[in-house]
């Protein structure tokens, strides 16, 4: 489990709303960066994305989904067949087993259809709460908040929704945001954490919501001519 940054005072509810509104104005139509064509390919991509970048997952699924884009096709491909496409991804052995068994379970228990139920999703191999929330949010349009490492960091660093665990941050965001914002807020926060509020060194001078962020050690702009190290 990720460790929260040093404690930042929590934002007021009005501050939370202002923070999200600033991100919304900066990125009006946020989308996941994982490539998928339907609920099944999204589910597989999210399972593969654990401890891996979206770029590496997209590279692997580009060839995988050409030969196995349905539960039956992926189950028939088998563990070795799936593994041959995903060896560049971390934990590929475990993930190959999970997605093949997941595909078999979908065929046997759900008629080859991805369920729109959190309990049914979490009963599938390799699917935890975060993965289920991503699928419910992106594939089924539900107001679910998936807390990955980026959102966990933002919830604590900015004061949006401090918590010792991802579930505490998730519950805090769900409590403090209007339900109609949750679907897009999931993407706004992930993308903001990935490209602006980075783990090692947040680029506060580029943050659209810096004026309401409660983080006390905001990073100043780099000196002219200095290189900004990606984190």
Report on this structure.
- The protein is 54% helix and 0% strand.
- With 231 residues, the chain is mostly helical.
- The protein has two domains: 13-29 and 144-206, Endonuclease Iii, domain 2, CATH 1.10.1670; 39-138, Hypothetical protein, domain 2 (Endonuclease III, domain 1), CATH 1.10.340.
- Helix 2 packs antiparallel against helix 7 (129-138) and helix 8 crosses helix 10.
- The longest helix has 19 residues, at 92-110.
- The two termini are 20 Å apart.
Uncertain residue ranges:
none
Q: Look at the structure and name the CATH superfamily of the largest domain.
A: Hypothetical protein, domain 2
Q: Report helical residue fraction.
A: 40-55%
Number of helices, counting only DSSP H or I runs of 4 residues or more = 10
**Quick one: biggest sheet?**
none
The structural class is: mainly alpha
**Proportion of residues in extended strands:** under 5%
CATH topology of the largest domain: Endonuclease III, domain 1
Please state the overall shape, judged from the principal axes of the Cα atoms. globular
Please indicate the count of domains: 2
User: What radius of gyration results from the CA coordinates?
Assistant: 19 Å
Query: How many strand elements?
Result: 0
CATH hierarchy: architecture of the largest domain: Orthogonal Bundle
Mean pLDDT: 92
N-to-C terminal Cα separation, in Å?
20 Å
How do the SSEs run, as a string of H and E? HHHHHHHHHH
The CATH class of the largest domain, by name, is Mainly Alpha
């Amino acid at each position: 489990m990720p460790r929260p940054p040093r404690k930042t005072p929590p934002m007021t509810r009005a501050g939370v709303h202002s923070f999200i509104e600033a991100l919304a104005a900066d990125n009006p139509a946020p989308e996941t960066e994982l490539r998928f064509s339907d609920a099944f390919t999204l589910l597989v991509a999210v399972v593969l994305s654990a401890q891996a970048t979206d770029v590496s997952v997209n590279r692997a699924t580009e060839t995988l989904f050409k030969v196995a884009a349905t539960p039956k096709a992926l189950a028939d491909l088998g563990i070795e067949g799936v593994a041959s496409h995903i060896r560049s991804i971390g934990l590929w052995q475990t993930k190959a087993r999970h997605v093949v068994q997941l595909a078999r379970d979908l065929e046997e228990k759900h008629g080859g259809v991805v369920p729109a139920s959190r309990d049914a999703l979490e009963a599938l191999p390799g699917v935890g709460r975060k993965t289920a929330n991503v699928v419910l949010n992106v594939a089924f349009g539900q107001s679910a908040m998936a807390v990955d490492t980026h959102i966990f960091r933002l919830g604590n660093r900015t004061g949006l929704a401090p918590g010792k665990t991802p579930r505490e941050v998730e519950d805090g965001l769900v409590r403090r945001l209007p339900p109609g914002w949750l679907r897009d807020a999931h993407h706004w926060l992930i993308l903001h954490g990935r490209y602006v509020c980075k783990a090692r060194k947040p680029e506060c001078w580029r943050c659209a919501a810096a004026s309401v962020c409660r983080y006390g050690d905001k990073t100043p702009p780099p000196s002219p001519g200095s290189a900004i190290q990606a984190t």
